[in-house]
Amino acid sequence: MGDTGTATAAAATSTFAHDIQPNHTIYVRNLKEKLKVDELKKALYALFSQFGPILEVVALKTFKMRGQAFVVFKDIGSATKALRDLQGFMFFGRPLIINYAKSKSDAILKLEGTYEELRNQRIAKRRQEQAEGTDAAPKLKKKQRMDQEVAASATVVVPVVEVEQVPPSNRLFVQNLPEECPELALSVLFQRFPGYKEVRMVPGKKGIAFVEFSTDVEAGVAMTGLQLFKITPEHMMQISYAK
Fold it and tell me: HSE (CB half, 13 Å, CA atoms) of 10?
């Protein structure tokens, strides 16, 4: 990461970060706008989940939300560590600008048991707005999308697969990946390790990939760091040296 990118992110953050209290949810800006929403969410999940359990990643297609996303952690400590460690991190050529969100997410409210009360308040407000001739449909649609994403984030335990022992190599063999795992998500994970060169997906074969490093030592460090890492709630990566 270059000094210029870090300084830019720090300057942009300092203008309003001090007035926002720590939160389970972090607000991520300066994202590459041309990425597809599904690919962006998968890449963000892969990057941020190394700091702790994630309840949901919210990224919308609306013009107002372009280049922005929210990442909801199960605990504030994980959110804080992610904010500090990834502030200014170069994510697809742009330094991340990260702050705590100004309010709690629906996922956290559900865990705290206060969601229904707030939901009833929202419904009452929406009915009042409708009575006053205000169209609140976009807000309802947004909430429905978020509810669907929360329901889809339930963790499933995946049995550990026996990994064959082979001699050290500068190439890693990665398996147990999601069938539609984007190359971008893998590159975000592995490029944090020294010596990273490239990710190669295998045409016609889903769930596996190869990752190349400059040396076998650097490949070993990455393998140790990401072994059994959950790239999605349902998929725990299995990594070995390539033959």
Answer: 8
